């Protein structure tokens, strides 16, 4: 816990020294469940992923957690079709991950996301170019077959029930010709791995007829939250479909006026980046259905502390040896044959091999599962986050499986080291979910105050009122919001304004740094 002596030893500014010497009121957290951001467990990631994340951060200076989440989503998309994971012999499911990253405009999230997934986009573009000619020929063969079939059916309809013998014979000839046409020619889908602005009907049709492994992917999540799929009449259907895809369960939609679809053997990743205000809209949409139906609980949530204001220019590049290795590995995974069920009555139904846990990995997973379960009671630490806690074990196993396939391919068993990574990363995201729901959707002034407090603690000295307007969090760069946030911090005993000769500065309560 900081005190006046410690502050003097650090040779702090006069404003901070004066604030420390004056008595502070009792501190009151801004939110009932105030959580500090934890350091992302980067050291537990496999080297191929860790080095790629490190190189992107070294150049763009984005929050480590933001880039690591992009890397995890990218790895999920590249690996999800190749394997399933068995937590126990009876608990088998997909390994695809959903990630929701909260970051304000200017965080360079798009730059990191695009670079991390670049190899997948390039592979998709190349495959589509190489297969397009054959794809068009297949479509033509199907169109010709369909036209012939429609013509035969129309001709048969004209002579059905005819009284004349020759017309009845003609009908029999037409029927024989129809039976001899065989099945409809197949049209192999072109790879489409990224979707963004869609709705439940379009998404289900695209997945039924298209590539069996894909994603809902947006570095501007407002396009998804504000899109057709989130309209009042569609949101429940949309989120329920996305839940079904995460679970890996079949989906059938029968319609008399629209195309009926049946989904089986599909694998799906969701990677959404959005501002805090957009998250608030998502939480409010459909009277809170995104939380009520378990949609958000299927996401690994992250709200990294911003690095804006500290990113001084430094030379660098995103074309490093580590990123070249990352790109090459992603391409290798995408080039692996898809494990398609040869006996399925639908096209391209995935039937991935199942990765078991080693005994040591299972023991680590079970320990984590039990620890989380014990905190889900009404008096537990996760009593207000039971939906997320109930999915934490599944998340841990999926993360471990994605990392295993990334490193070893879709064979073998998941070892304890990667399960430890899965557990720690899942626990980190569980903490982030608690932070998010402790802040978003509540008092807007308190949320502004929290952002200002976090930023002020990172400043080398107590920031002036002018500096807050120029370089502080974007949400408090308007004088009215800045002053309201400062008043909130002062009310809670967390910070206060101290006058110097030429400036007023915001000083953080030195005891706050010692709060766990």
Give an overview in words.
- This protein has helices spanning 4-9, 14-21, 47-60, 64-79, 109-116, 118-159, 165-179, 200-209, 222-225, 235-247, 276-284, 289-292, 321-335, 359-374, 386-408, 416-439, 444-458, 465-471, 479-491, and strands at residues 84-88, 91-94, 98-102, 213-218, 251-253, 261-263, 267-274, 300-302, 354-356, 495-499, 504-508.
- The longest helix is centred in the first third of the chain and has 42 residues, at 118-159.
- Strand 5 and strand 6 form a beta hairpin.
- With 516 residues, it is of the alpha/beta class.
- It is built from 19 helices and 11 strands.
- 51% of the residues lie in helices and 10% in strands.
- The chain is elongated, with a radius of gyration of 28 Å.
- Helix 15 runs antiparallel to helix 16.
- The strands form 4 sheets. The protein has a 4-stranded parallel sheet, sandwiched between helices. A 3-stranded mixed sheet has the order 2-1-9, covered by helices on one side.
Brief rundown of the structure:
This protein is an alpha/beta fold and 516 residues long. 51% of the residues lie in helices and 10% in strands.
